[in-house]
Amino acid sequence: MSKTWYPVIDYSQCKECGACINKCKHGVYEQRKNRPVVVNPEGCVHGCRGCQNLCPSGAIQYVGDTDGNNSCSCGCSGCC
């Protein structure tokens, strides 16, 4: 798991659909007042873009993203 790679949500774009919460199997997100909140950034797998790829509004970016590549490469079974 990673401390240098984790999602950040742009709430001005977030549609509060919950796709990121439902997708992530690593406990990174929690729903609070209908909004997804990053509660466990250390749980995010470095290079995983599963939640970003599902976000219909493009509201998820990553701390530690240096290449801007939108393909998931984490290798986790079933998370992407």
Automatic annotation (TrEMBL):
Domain 4Fe-4S ferredoxin-type positions: 5-34, 35-65
Keyword Acyltransferase: no
GO MF term set: 4 iron, 4 sulfur cluster binding; metal ion binding
InterPro entries in the record: 4Fe4S_Fe-S-bd, Fe-S_Ferredoxin
SUPFAM superfamilies: 4Fe-4S ferredoxins (SSF54862)
Swiss-Prot/TrEMBL keywords: 4Fe-4S, Iron, Iron-sulfur, Metal-binding
Keyword Metal-binding among record annotations: yes
Origin superkingdom: Bacteria
Name of the protein in its database record: 4Fe-4S ferredoxin
Biological classification of the source: Bacteria, Bacillati, Bacillota, Clostridia, Eubacteriales
